[in-house]
C-alpha cells in the first residue's frame, strides 16, 4: 500500500471511530468525549479513562494506547491485525472501550 493509500485509510478509520463514539449516546445511552487532533483521536470516558488511537504513516500502522497497554496494528488486506498476535483492532477496541465503560458492552466497528 502506498503512503497516500495508508493515510486515506487511516483518516477514514479515525473519522469512523469518532462518528461511532458520537452514536454511542443514542445506541447505548452512554456519552464519551471524542477529540481529534490531526492523526490522533482521543476517547475520554466518564471515569476519565483515555483511549488514544493514532496512525503511524512511516510504519503504516495504527496504534492504540489504553490502560491495558500499547498495541500496534497493520493492515493485512482485509483487517487490521495486531503485530504481536492479539485480536484484530476492532475486537481489541471493543474490549478496551467496554472495560473503560465499566463493563457495559460497546461494539466497535472499523
CATH architecture: 2-Layer Sandwich
CATH topology: Metal Transport, Frataxin, Chain A
The share of residues in extended strands comes to 25-35%
Overall geometric form: globular
Biggest sheet strand order reads 1-2-3-4-5-6
Q: How many β-strand stretches?
A: 6
Index terms:
six-stranded antiparallel sheet; 6 strands; Metal Transport, Frataxin, Chain A; 2 helices; 110 residues; alpha+beta
Brief description of this entry?
The protein has 110 residues and is of the alpha+beta class. It contains two helices and six strands.
Structure description:
By secondary structure, the protein is an alpha+beta fold. It has one domain (3-87): Frataxin/CyaY (Metal Transport, Frataxin, Chain A, 2-Layer Sandwich), CATH 3.30.920. It contains two helices and six strands; from the N terminus they run H-E-E-E-E-E-E-H. The protein has a six-stranded antiparallel β-sheet, with helices on one face. The chain is globular and about 40 Å long. The mean pLDDT is 93.
Write the layout of secondary structure elements.
Blueprint: H1 3-28, E1 33-37, E2 40-44, E3 50-56, E4 61-66, E5 69-75, E6 80-82, H2 89-100
Amino acid at each position: 500500500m502506498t503512503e497516500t493509500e495508508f493515510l486515506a485509510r487511516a483518516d477514514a478509520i479515525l473519522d469512523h471511530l469518532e462518528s461511532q463514539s458520537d452514536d454511542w449516546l443514542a445506541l447505548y445511552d452512554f456519552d464519551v468525549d471524542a477529540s481529534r487532533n490531526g492523526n490522533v483521536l482521543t476517547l475520554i470516558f466518564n471515569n476519565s479513562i483515555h483511549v488514544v488511537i493514532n496512525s503511524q504513516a512511516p510504519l503504516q500502522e495504527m496504534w492504540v494506547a489504553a490502560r491495558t497497554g500499547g498495541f500496534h496494528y497493520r493492515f493485512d488486506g482485509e483487517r487490521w491485525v495486531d503485530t504481536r498476535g492479539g485480536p484484530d483492532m476492532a475486537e481489541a477496541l471493543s474490549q478496551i472501550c467496554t472495560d473503560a465503560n465499566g463493563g457495559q458492552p460497546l461494539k466497535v466497528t472499523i
